[in-house]
Design a protein that fits this description.
Helix content: over 70%
Distance between the termini: 97 Å
Mean pLDDT: 83
GO molecular function: DNA binding
Number of strands: 0
Largest sheet: none
Pfam family, one: HTH_3
Number of helices: 8
Order of helices and strands: HHHHHHHH
CATH topology of the largest domain: 434 Repressor (Amino-terminal Domain)
Structural class: mainly alpha
CATH architecture of the largest domain: Orthogonal Bundle
Keywords: Coiled coil
Protein name: XRE family transcriptional regulator
CATH class of the largest domain: Mainly Alpha
CATH superfamily of the largest domain: lambda repressor-like DNA-binding domains
Length: 136
Amino acid sequence: MNTAEKNHIGRKIGRIRELKGIKQLDLAERLGISQQTLSRIEQSETVEDEKLKEVAQALGVTKEAIENFSEDKALNIIGNTYHVDNSSAVNYGCTFNPLDKLMEVVEENKRLYKELLKAEKDKVKYLEKLLKEYKK
């Protein structure tokens, strides 16, 4: 890939859009432009800074991320960070004990029930007091 292709901002925009799973029409709508206009931007070697900032914001990346985007680097990062563990059929990598979380919820429910019970008892006492005063 020659230097001109590496610095082709429009292609970088298009590739980032594709990697993020955004259709050209969807990005165009986010930018408030037609799909044809976005297509022309993606075919342009350079893009004005202000327009590039708008596109970056619509893509959810920084302007610098677009300018410095390299598909080789992106694939290298994915290749170095994605590992398949075939030692088990299912590997969700759970970082907490689900039973501990369940017990936390049970304890919280007990606490809330006690608070509710106390509030109901206080309400009954208050109503009994009002009833006694009414009977006098």
